[in-house]
Amino acid sequence: MAKLYTEYSSEMKDLQPKKESVEFLLNYSKALKIIKYKELKFQTLLN
Amino acid sequence: MNQLHLQDPALIEKYLKGDETALETLINRHSQRIYSFVFSKVFDKDVAEDIFQDTFIKVINTLKRGSYNEEGKFLPWVMRIAHNLVIDHFRKNNRMPKFEGNDDFNIFSLIGDSSLNAEKQLIKDQVECDLRKLIEELPDDQREVLIMRMYKDMSFKEISEITGVSINTALGRMRYAIINLRKIINKHNIVLTN
Predict the structure, then answer these.
(1) Helix/strand/coil for B62
(2) Domain boundaries of chain A, sorted by first residue
(3) Using an 8 Å Cβ cutoff, are B23 and A24 in contact?
(4) Does A18 touch chain B (CB under 8 A)?
(5) Residue of A8, A13, A15 to mutate, testing the B interface (most B Cβ within 10 Å of its Cβ)
(6) Segment B86-141, tens digit of pLDDT
(7) Contact B55, B78 (CB under 8 A)
(8) Cα–Cα distance, B41 to A41 (Å, whole number)
(9) Interchain CB distance below 8 Å, A17 and B23
(10) Do A30 and B20 touch (CB under 8 A)?
């Protein structure tokens, strides 16, 4: 059987985004408000 | 309340009702898969991080706008957004290829910023100021010719017409002005280099 010489990179096993990135997204979500007016939707960031 | 047991649609519903922690659960649940997917395409942690964030910004915007209607298919939907952003990233890079130098070759050694930095600008100003003081020490006729030639960029023909002397005399005065300046500089050991 053919031998596989490539190694599975250990880097690929545990790939997670940074904590800061997730924090940013959660804060972004908290700050984001959508205001609906008739047919229109306005986006505001309350930061 | 522990939301880990809740399915994606239930979490989305909670989030749409204003429960921000539901989003946290959703992100934590899927972050590894989405991030690894993006990284496996771009092979750059910083770029992967950016695309991961942009993906969820789109997700959040769509959810909050009430435009999400793919019940039960949250992860494939997010993956599709991430996939499209990866394509956008490569398209953008093709239009504007990024050049990164390495240890052997750095593009910035070829194209440098020609403007002086703050320190060199200060030294240059000081040197010019000192030189103006030295010029003031020259005899009037020599100083006059030197200023017209060097600072006003006039030709020797123009200088000779204004000062009423021959071109040769103007040239001679310029020559002596420079010789005398050198003498003063040597005598006082003045350093006029940047």
Answers:
(1) helix
(2) 17-45
(3) no
(4) yes
(5) A15
(6) 999 998 877 766 666 676 777 667 676 777 788 888 888 888 888 888 898 899 99
(7) yes
(8) 34
(9) no
(10) yes
